[in-house]
Design goal:
Structural class: mainly alpha
Order of helices and strands: HHH
Distance between the termini: 28 Å
Number of strands: 0
Number of helices: 3
Number of domains: 1
Helix content: over 70%
Shape: elongated
Radius of gyration: 16 Å
Amino acid sequence: MAVLRMLSGSAEIIAALLMLRLNQVDKALAVNSTLALVGPTILILTTAIGLTGMAQELSWGKLGWIGCGVAFLLIGILKK
């Protein structure tokens, strides 16, 4: 999970440097739009890894509540 978060953070920093290098609003917006795909993907992957590791310790009810929470997060992030 930590490695995925480090990769995500690195992608954010690289994108910021690229935006500074391009120095144009329209190109920076395109780079930012690409980052909109990276964030939710990393969220889903890290959550899946965490839940896989904890699945044996949690009841089905608790896993259901966690799944609902993740679903609400994704709806909030992706809905325009």
